[in-house]
Amino acid sequence: MKLLSLFTLESTFALLATCLQAEAFRTCGQRHDNFLDPPAGQRPRFRYWLPDGSVEPDVVKSDIRAAGGIGAGGVEFLPFYNYGGGLGPPPAGVNWSTYGFGTPAHLRLFTAALKAHNETGLALDFSLGPNQGQGVPAEPDTEGLQWDLFAETLSITAGGRLTGTIPGWGTGELVAAVSSLVISRANVSYNLSGVQGPTTVRYQDLVLDKQKVSGTVVQDLLASIGNYGERLFFYPVNLTERHEITMLNYCRLGGQPGGSLYYIMDASDRFERMFGYDLRRYLPLVMFGNNNINLQNTEPGSTRCVLNTPDGGQGYVNDYRAALAEGYQEYLTSLSDWLRSLGLQLSSQVSYNMPMDMEASIPYVDAPECESLQFADKVDGYRQFSGPANLAGKNVISNELGAIFGKAYRLTIPELLFSMNQAVAGGVNQFVIHGLSYSGDYPQTTWPGYTAFRYAVSDMFSPKRPDWNHGLGPALDYMARIQHVQQTGVPLTDVAFFNKQSVTDPNAGTIYQSRDLISEGKLSSLYAVVRDMTLAPDGPRFQAMVVLRSQNLTDSGLRRLAEFAGQGLPLIIASGTPGRFPSENTTTDRDAFEAALANLLRHENVSQVPEGRIADALASLNLTPRVGVRTNGTWYTTWREDRKAGMSYAYVFCDMRPASGEVVVESSDIPYFFDAWTGDRKPVLNYRKDGNKTTIPLDLAGNQTQIIAFSKEPLDGIVLPDFFATKWPSNVMGYAANSNEALLHMGSSNSSGLGYYSANFTWPSIPTKGSNATALGAYIEFPAVLNAITVTVNRARLPPLDYAHPVANIAPHLVDGENRVVAVVPSTMWNYVRSILPDFENAGLDHLTNIGSDPDSKTENGLVGSVRIVPYEILRVGLSRNDAGCVGNA
């Protein structure tokens, strides 16, 4: 899913200039409400799966207009080429030499895309090259091409000699030959579930004697041949078939699993400078499990080598990864500088799938991007990504959203929004949806049209979907409003967790509700300063830093932590004393490290606490969350401040299960509820204040969010009541079952489309028994939405419903006597698609629906559960004798 893309700036071409002029024209005479209608740059985009340069420009323009018409901010223009040919060749009659990336045919499509965005006021992203094709043709001796290092091995019995041609000779330039005495060996075999189903992994496990490892460079090979011990390793370096031109003597994209290694052409000099030794002697240690960290689970390599040392040689592996990261950062810097010289900026999925500390490289691009597939909806996985970005002052943290194996044409909108809500809780604030399909004809392709990844990965959005005009638009508007809020002001985070990793773990578990994970490499950035006992006071304003025993410290990281403590930042060492990060750096001193660590632990600003007592330690320092929660479920929060506008925003996300409780916000400003589904803004009516804190009760459904804005001044156009409820009963509004219940179910047949449900009821309802009050209004309550829903009452369209908690006030639309409700519920396309899969063609290739799921399974569609009309009474309440607020029941 790797992509390098660009996004527009105010100085970028005439495209965005025209967009800005259109925006200015629209807002003449009145201030535009950017929450109600966010600008294109703050709306979600679609990644546009363009088959190749042979398709029709008019269809491309039509697809882009259609996406903008339902609320997308534009597309990420991506010529796909069947994943760079990895998923199959072009269909018969399509020549990629004629229709390849950069050809006149491709440029014609790119021009059409530019015009479509310009004409509709949208924002365009575009990729630097063909997706996964990774570049353009180049001569083999061109500087900067990607090189992969491959290993060949040979066993020689004690006293034996090597005769004949060495393994791998002629396949590439020989970089090194290494010999070692093998102490033990074992054949390893195990089964696991891979991307393409059950897989058996096999490799040989060797323990090498460190004292008997010898390295030989090419010049000395002939002189030393025949003097090796039991195992010989030969390393030819090959120009990879998937390569791209880069700025430096380093390249990173397109590495393949199966035992090859990203090779740094200046590895010897770089290692001598960074660590004081030559890497080539220890190549056997890094050749296993250091390629594509996702795909190599099933193809880690044929031989795993470790040393007979306490860390098994892990220090050498860590040093290799650090050198790789340094070169990668140089690459990103050069590429970013070049693009800025053209008035553009770089967005990249930083070190995606690469064996390195992702956090250390995130600040080197303008708009770092992560992916829901990689982080698997893990909030703390995302916090590893957003923490360094926030510390570096990045305003846009992007996410490629919605790629799930086995979900093509069956991913529902609530599932997409669940992934989005989790990512926002982890600090993400911009989304590129995976993805928009080319809707036109394509050779050897049947309905529903060209499907990227051959039906293996979700999802394919296009006007052919039942929900395109029946529910997807409100979801995109919801996403846009969330993005607008999350790109406003500065994100503030309570606690920073030190997180030095050799390779980033996207599956990190949640430790603390409001925290970011900060890599050791970013503690030396310009933003990482301490002032007034706060780290990064002009950015996230961390109130403390936590170091867990499971973390390892580098020498430079330890020095930086000591500086922070000396400047007044509270440090909490939890669960025990951290160790030293394994490295074979010959320029460092272990004894000096231990002495420095002991001094740090004695510092007055350093607290040591046992496992599970971090929150207690923070409380003892009088440090409280900016957005605290008391709930019977799981809520995640974020907090942003826009000091210039006098506004702050709390985002609350209820994970999976319904939960009630209250949020305690560190603000005494005027609170408002901002509805991301409708764009409405209303004052909070039930809350209490205690000094500079405001407590607000909430009752949230699973996968529901709430935005609470705090303003120093009353917002224009919103009337504030004279007083508020400062106490509330346990159930402010009760929905009771009544005779108007209905059970509506589309069923699970081999059909896809729109379900139309209607019901009639008589109004007004019968007054409550024993009461003289009259029911003056009613709510309509639907069950949680399976995909999407639109509702009319007496032919009046209701505002968009929250798909997690679809409840609406229908009082303005009620009439005396007979009333009619119509709900339109779109299904996914899958149930029909699966029924005719055997007849499908996709660019002349069959489908891959067996990857990640059962192709025979159906999706549940329709309206499932009780639909209720809930009458309500309006009661006038006033100040009680004992309280300076009001108490009442609705």
Automatic annotation (TrEMBL):
It comes from Colletotrichum plurivorum. PANTHER family: DNA-BINDING PROTEIN (PUTATIVE SECRETED PROTEIN)-RELATED, SECRETED PROTEIN. Residues 1-24 form the signal peptide. Pfam families: Glyco_hydro_106. It comes from the Eukaryota. Keywords: Signal. The keyword Nucleotide-binding does not apply. The keyword Signal applies. This is Secreted protein.
